[in-house]
Design a protein that fits this description.
Number of helices: 13
Oligomer: single chain
Shape: globular
Radius of gyration: 22 Å
Strand order of the largest sheet: 7-6-8-1-9-10-4-11
Number of strands: 12
């Protein structure tokens, strides 16, 4: 049994819940919508946004990259494998990226690589330990050293209202420029933190099929141990590790593992239940039982939904599923036992967003969104490097905003548009120091609402779980234990607390 009901009762006094009184301005918010895109640092897309803490005027000590031995690199490593994704024409080859100066560069600079926002670039490492090694204690100076993409980690786009649709949305409403991904690393872990502020467990992993997925760390216990044959310099090649893995030595799951339920990248066991993923597959995570924001909402009788683009296509194994690039590990509720196939909760709350978000848009237009609604775009529309172009995802989300602004629910709605993590892409702002899980690098976040401050750049310190803080405050829920633990860790390091996004709003 999940402890959600006990948490509601016990934490009302000690977990920081703020019940909404009848006269509380937050009562004006009736619908909170979260749109969750992929893998972009703040500087990568908004480095030149007016009034934001971006790339303009940076000094060398804010961007110079250091090699693995701590020395300043004479140049950036070439982009291993080339700048553009496989099969993309025209391709920018590895040889063409040699001898890049040691500084940030614009991917779409006409005098440089001239690779526009509509072109898919290659993917980069975005992993739990590597992200921490790249951040390097807040110096952000080893993104090129601990990457498999070399200098591409220092790439960004020169964007404007004319080139990026969400820039226009950000100029109209609020852009947060001090918003950090909740957890170090990749999409999988940050999706978990979005819904439960927690890191999944794989109990007794050392005696399980996943025993060879446990990372080997160095003597300090916080970084991966380099292999004996790892290149000494990043200029000579990507680093090699004794063993990177999905699991920490104490059995927390930090890098991508697959859901225990279909749809999952791991098929069912031969002759097994077709609704399950093969539990003997070493990358199948056992069902999780931690309390989620969905549990807290449900226990209070507040409706909610996770809309996933192409969800039904994935369940049906649609023959053209590869065209939408469905990502199974981007569906965090599908890892939880109380959302197992056949349960009432799954039927009530896990919704098909339709191909290209068509069913989600229909729900918007008809005014049928639950009070708390999450939307995950299908892969080719989520902006993830390696298989999605920035422009396609940006246009899709801007289209959603246009529908939301015309929705019957708009007058009492708050929309948060953000990215799950930085995708291995450099950002110059040091994350605040908190706990072992994060926060990680800075990412963009837009607050879109009739209540949002207009034409505003919000410098308040936030992380992904500021979204959960807002939901909890609005609906009088206890804060999840991971959020209160983060508060304590921030305080212990002398850091500012995370905001709850109300600083971006003007409420009646």
């Amino acid at each position: 049994m999940k402890p959600a009901a006990l948490l509601l009762a016990a934490c009302a006094l000690v977990c920081g819940a703020v019940p909404v009184r009848a006269a509380d301005p937050l009562a004006a918010i009736e619908t909170i919508v979260v749109i969750y895109a992929e893998n972009r640092s703040f500087d990568n897309l908004y480095g030149y946004f007016p009034g934001a803490n971006g790339l303009t005027g940076l000094k060398p000590d804010q961007y110079l990259q250091r090699d693995r031995d701590g020395s300043v690199m004479t140049e950036l490593p070439r982009i291993w494998g080339g700048l553009t994704a496989r099969g993309v024409t025209p391709a920018v080859t590895e040889a063409q990226t040699a001898h890049l100066p040691n500084r940030p560069f614009a991917i779409n600079d006409p005098a440089g690589f001239n690779t526009p926002l509509a072109v898919v670039t290659r993917d980069l490492w975005h992993l739990f330990y590597q992200n921490q090694m790249q951040i390097d204690g807040g110096r952000n100076d080893k993104f090129a050293a601990f990457a498999d993409s070399g200098g591409l980690a220092m790439g960004h786009y020169r964007t404007s209202e004319e080139t990026l649709p969400l820039w226009r949305v950000a100029r109209k409403y609020t852009l947060a420029d001090n918003f950090f991904m909740a957890a170090f690393g990749g999409s999988y872990l940050n999706h978990q933190w979005l819904i439960c502020a927690c890191t999944p467990r794989y109990e007794h992993a050392d005696k399980s099929p996943a025993k060879d997925k446990i990372a080997v760390l160095d003597a300090g216990g916080k970084a991966l141990k380099l292999a004996a044959n790892s290149p000494k310099s990043a200029l000579d090649g990507p680093p090699k590790f004794v063993r990177d893995g999905q699991l920490t030595p104490d059995f927390y799951s930090v890098n991508t593992m697959q859901p225990p339920y279909q749809p999952s990248r791991n098929p069912p066991a031969a002759g097994g239940d077709p609704a399950l993923a093969d539990p003997a597959n070493p990358t199948t995570l056992p069902p999780q039982t931690a309390t989620t924001i969905g549990d807290l909402l449900s226990h209070k009788g507040i409706d909610w939904a996770w809309y996933s683009g192409a969800w039904q296509m994935a369940l049906d194994h649609a023959p053209d599923l590869d065209k939408v690039v469905f990502q199974y590990h981007h569906q965090p509720f599908n890892y939880f036992a109380d959302m197992a196939p056949g349960t009432p909760a799954r039927a009530a709350h896990l919704k098909d967003g339709g191909r290209d978000g068509a069913l989600f848009i229909k729900a918007i237009d008809e005014g049928r969104l639950p009070p708390v609604t999450f939307y995950k775009p299908q892969g080719n529309l989520n902006e993830h490097a390696g298989y999605a172009a920035v422009l396609a995802g940006d246009e899709h989300i801007a289209e959603l905003v246009a529908h939301l602004e015309k929705s019957p629910q708009w007058a009492h709605m708050v929309v948060i548009i953000t990215y799950d993590e930085n995708g291995g892409i450099w950002d110059h702002v040091a994350p605040p120091k908190a706990d072992r899980w994060g926060p990680g690098s800075r990412i963009p976040a837009l607050i879109v609402s009739p209540f949002a401050r207009k034409g505003y750049v919000d410098h308040t310190q936030y992380d992904t779980d500021s979204i959960l803080r807002l939901i909890s405050r609005r609906f009088g829920l206890p804060l999840l234990p991971g959020i209160t633990a983060r508060d304590a860790a921030l305080k212990a390091h002398g850091e500012k607390p995370m905001g709850d996004l109300t600083q971006a709003l003007t409420l009646p």
